[in-house]
Amino acid sequence: MQAAAGEDGEELPREARVLGSELVESYTVYIIQVSVGSHQWTVKHRYSDFHDLHEKLVSEKKIDKNLLPPKKIIGKNSKSLVEKRQKELEVYLQTLLSTFPVTAPKVLSHFLHFHLYEINGITAALAEELFHKGEQLLMAGEVFTIRPLQLYAVTQQLLQGKPTCANGDAKTDLGHILDFTCRLKYLKVTGAGGSFGTSNIQEHLLPFDLSIFKSLHQIEIHHCGGKLIKGLISSKHTLATMSVRFSATSMKEILVPEASEFDQWEPEGASSSCPVTAVIPTWRTLTTLDMSHNNISQIDDSVKLIPKIEFLDLSHNGVSLVENLQHLYNLVHLDLSYNKLTSLEGVHTKLGNIKTLNLAGNQLERLSGLNKLYSLVNLDLSNNTIEQIDEVKNIGSLPCLEKVILSSNPLSIIPDYRTKVLAQFGDRASEVCLDNIVTTEKELDTVEVLKAIQKAKEVKYKLSNSDKKISEDSRLTAASSKSNCSSLTVRPSSPSLPRPVSSSQGNHK
Hints:
By secondary structure, the protein is α/β, with parallel strands linked by helices. It contains twelve helices and 18 strands.
């Protein structure tokens, strides 16, 4: 979408057309299309709504009382009258817009839904709302929800450099918005997945600036255009929790949007052997980051800028490799569920202190990379492609593991699946909760039997190996002795030495 107002301050053309009508119960409703620049939306009103609007404008703004086409009692729903009135009402609306070219009166703004879709109307309505409720919201410490379109409108208003109170009503002064945003701690920006309301406005295509927020501790951003968000980094020194969902194509565009301006960059405080063109401040207070449900394909090096992160959610993305997380020394909870992971080799070098790890919904067959995550307490491996019970041995010796989920894997349909899995944990079987089901005494008894059988197999295997070794040693010893005897009685002939003659032969001579 193009901007609904010129960034150079010029007013965009406004138009209201009555496109048609429809009969609702016993009265006619007129369908109005309102356009401001490239933004369009529809509004529906019956004639009595027009009449009420006109009465208020005549009273408040002294417009010509004969401007509105008169009421009709007889045949008011006839096709000819409706078509004639449709044209007259369109002329009426266009005349009003010409009469108020800059800022529409509040009653007209609400009639044409300017307070929902048009920049001046949106900011005026928001300012008035905060005039009445702003202080109360700040005192309560509640999360304030705002639409991308509202932020876009405020951003455009500030770019235009106009007076903060264009219509003369102090309640609609832009200053009420700026005072509120400067002190707000908890913000939620939520857009629409498609067109907003009855308009053609795509909120995820609207740019907006968050630098007006100076004290944010928590922010949620949903269904916005990640690359179009400006000013988020101005909250680096205050934000503790950030959620960006259905909005981003990479971590970098949110965490370090300025990276595109530099060839080489490093976070502040880092030592680098390579020349850098920029030193980027870190998100020094950010401990929780949710970037789930995006189109992120890799864990890029922007994570170096979030060294204090403890909780990281990257679920429902397209990540195929666990990388760069070695920079997050404080990370204890990681969600990588519903990505494209196929291997966990070397994961322990990236996740040394992890306690909760969610890997559900990937394409994992083997668990060999998890065998050194000694701090791990909770592990979700559901909805993968693990087939072999033996794979569980890779997590069976983890000393802190308490909760494991393996449901919806091929191995979960193996007969006696639960007891066979629990048996892999040896003496800790009673401490492990499998698939969110508490282990029963009966299962533990079965586990003991399986452990005994396994131990017997191991003993038998060792004895068998020992017998084989003894037999092999005996065979080798016998072969060696035989070889030694042969070497004493039979010596090979040598062409250079005469064969020895026995003493009896010599005496005989």
